[in-house]
Every structure is written in structure tokens, then in C-alpha cells.
Amino acid sequence: MKTTGIHHVAIVCSNYEKSKSFYVEVLGFSIIKETFRSHRNSYKLDLLVGNGDRIELFSFPNPPKRVNSPEACGLRHLSFEVDNIDESVAYLKSQAVQVEEIRIDEITGKRFTFFKDPDDLPLEIYEK
């Protein structure tokens, strides 16, 4: 198999309007397309991140809770690259988003930190 990149990351949310607002208004992702699938009572929101990356935000009635352990098998976190981590942290805090202290990646020497989306999905910002 020869891949050319990651096409998208899919996220299931518990409150569609709250998560849509977070990803669009707070994080600033652009809406590509919003679709309501009546047969599933479900929304699918295609979002543009940066210059071509995509997130698909799904809503389903009564989705099961996420496993809380950060070391459990599966997706550990989703990371977004930023030019200036200090500005990004200040912005997130101005939007009432709780952000952990900035850390240094011991392997790359780059600065990063974590915050959570409305469903406690761990998100990271990582300085270029």
C-alpha cells in the first residue's frame, strides 16, 4: 500500500451544537460541508484545518463515553501545529479553555501543551 497522507480524523461528539461551536468559533476551523443524515438522526460536519487537513465531526444519539485513561489503547490525542504557542495559549485561555502548562518535548526540544474539547477529548498544540 502506498499512502499519500492522512485524509481526515473523525470525532464523535455528545453535543453537536456545543462541539461545532468549539471547533468552528473557538479553534477557527472552516466548515467545508454540514450534512444531517435523518435516517441516523446524525450530523456530519466536515472541517478544514490549516491548508488542507480535515476533521469529520459526527453526532450520534447517546454515544458511549470515552475511556478516560490516557494510556489506554487507541487514539491518545490529536495534535495541531501552531506558529506561536504563547499566543495560542493566551487565545485559548481568553475563550475560557483550560490549558495545561507548556512543556518541552525531550526528544525534539519543541514546546507543547494540552487542552480538551467539550467531550474531554485530549487535544495538543505543538509549536513549529
From TrEMBL:
Tell whether Metal-binding is among the UniProt keywords.
yes
Example GO molecular function term? metal ion binding
Show the InterPro entries listed in the entry: Fosfomycin_Res_Enzymes, Glyas_Bleomycin-R_OHBP_Dase, Glyas_Fos-R_dOase_dom, VOC_core, YwkD-like_dom
What the entry lists under Pfam families is as follows: Glyoxalase (PF00903)
Domain VOC, which positions?
5-128
Q: Which UniProt keywords apply?
A: Metal-binding
Keyword Signal in record: no
**CDD domains on file:** VOC_Bs_YwkD_like (cd08352)
Xref: PROSITE patterns: VOC
Q: Which Gene3D superfamilies match?
A: 2,3-Dihydroxybiphenyl 1,2-Dioxygenase, domain 1 (3.10.180.10)
Q: PANTHER family from the xrefs?
A: FOSFOMYCIN RESISTANCE PROTEIN FOSX, LYASE, PUTATIVE-RELATED-RELATED
- The protein's name is VOC family protein
> What is the native source organism of this protein?
Aerosakkonema funiforme FACHB-1375
